[in-house]
Amino acid sequence: MNSAATDRARYDRATAHLDAPLAIVDLDAFDANADDLVRRAAGKPVRVASKSVRCRALLERVLARPGFAGIMSYTLAESLWLARSGFEDVLLAYPSADRAGFGELANDAKLAGAVTVVVDDPAQLDLIDAARDGGAEEIRVCLELDTALRLLGGRVRIGARRSPLREPAQLADLARAVAARPGFRVVGLMAYEGHVAGVGDSLAGRPLRSRTIRLMQGAARKELAARRAKVVRAVRAVVPDLEFVNGGGTGSVQQTAAEDAVTEIAAGSGLYMPRLFDNYTSFSGRPAALFAQPVVRRPGVGVVTVLGGGYPASGAAGADRLPVPYLPQGLRYDPQEGAGEVQTPLLGSPADDLLIGDRVWFRHAKAGELCERFDTLHLIEGDRVTESVPTYRGEGRTFL
């Protein structure tokens, strides 16, 4: 029996007492992936991206491991909830317009001490001040650097459209503006190189495309490393006691960690290892988060239909945003129907060995988004479920 068949047998045995649809996390794989992130970070702490986990129990598990420190959150409401839950170092990595949330932050010393908010525009500071509701707590601020690679005099841009701040002088100017403004303190700098950390460079059957991506990423890493070092020097000239410089992502951990200017690495998707992270030459991981859909129909030879399964991930629409049938191996979507809202036909010879009530195991495209579909994650060790824990959704929290 090959490893995939062995895993399928384990998962089926472990969840035999449960009805599908259901979602699992294989803790052996999860922990092995965590160890690999720490190894690649080479001594720099890994800040866990909560959007890629979306389960408090698993955030607690990974943060209890050596090499991990702090959370990178995705909304202010989530940040405040995590801080109230006992997480003491929460970096909100996306600007917010949550006025009520900023009012809470400015009026609570514990929250203000635990949560850092990202800014890249003085108007965001204006919004926070207008929302204080009398609160005088000092707001911890992190500045964000635009990491995009620009070519041909700026006519070509490769990278996410995030911060408008690109040059050292721009970051230093904002740092001075924050320093001169009562009620705020710059404590950090972050830069997410998504075009390197989040884009696979080894695409099956596309060697020319893969080579092009590798060339682009090599140029992007070189350009960003030099510019980021200059930015950090410029900001530290204004804020000598800067606490952290955050960079990276699952796909670029070791390269970003090698930069002297960076003090910590952000990563999260590498814990669950969704399908989008299969296509990297620099690392490999073990699929840890899966979901199972039950077979409910057998329309004909070589076809089964499972309940639901149409869980597309965010990003530019395409086949790579769909879950993939994973176990048993050899199943594929019907091109006429794809992954359906309430039912999904699957084609392939393994379908003839599946009976009504059997499970098909899928891998989701993006890590934490799976948890928006399920309220519980069943944690598996070996061939048994050792614990069932709520996702954010299971705790009644849907932040975005």
For the structure shown, list the relevant keywords:
single chain; 400 residues; 12 helices; eight-stranded parallel beta barrel; alpha/beta; nine-stranded mixed sheet
Helix/strand-derived class?
A: alpha/beta
Please indicate the percent range of residues in DSSP E strands (runs of 2 or more).
Answer: 15-25%
Number of helices: 12
Number of strands: 19
In percent, how helical is the residue content? Answer: 25-40%
Detailed description of the structure:
The protein is α/β, with parallel strands linked by helices and 400 residues long. Helices cover 31% and strands 24% of the residues. It has twelve helices and 19 strands. It has helices at residues 3-14, 27-41, 56-63, 76-84, 99-106, 109-114, 122-130, 168-179, 194-197, 207-238, 253-257, 269-272; strands at 22-26, 46-49, 68-73, 90-92, 115-119, 139-144, 149-151, 156-158, 184-191, 244-247, 264-267, 289-300, 303-307, 324-327, 332-333, 343-347, 359-363, 376-381, 384-390. The relative contact order is 0.17. The model has no long low-confidence stretch (mean pLDDT 94).
